[in-house]
Amino acid sequence: MKKRLISLSVIALMALSLLSTKEALAYDKSNRLGLGMSNELKNDFPALSFKIQKNRSFALGGLAGVSTAQSNGGFGVGLKAYRNLFDEPQLNFYFAAMGALLSNKLNGTSYSGFQLDVSLGSEFHFQGLQSLGFSFEFGASAYKNKNFVFQTLGNNFIVSAIHFYL
Question: Which residues span the domain enclosing 101?
Fold first, then answer.
């Protein structure tokens, strides 16, 4: 009898805790500017990046990297569009497309070209640290710098982007 009472009490407490839980929604970054870094450019220049969340389903971003090294310098600049597919608590999944212009020197010879990326990805936030967003992506990339290359891509959050939202 005593075990049954304890079991019923535990079940009742679990039911009450489930009923009292607040609904978990993804972090809303609408009309917020994220500033950070990215290393997505195929000429391997670390880039400063920004991301503006226009509404819950669309964001626009950009990145720019430059190096003034005499033998291996150059630049890269690009724009990126994001379309959120669905949200989870502290996480959103998105489709992204990026276009960039690339220019760099290799052993004193200058090359210029482009980069086009199409990817699926996610941006996640730690609870209590919602102003910092970490992204990772996978997809396909086509770029031309010295030669035309088509390849799959898989970017972890160090390569993809880290943004601090103001």
Answer: 27-165
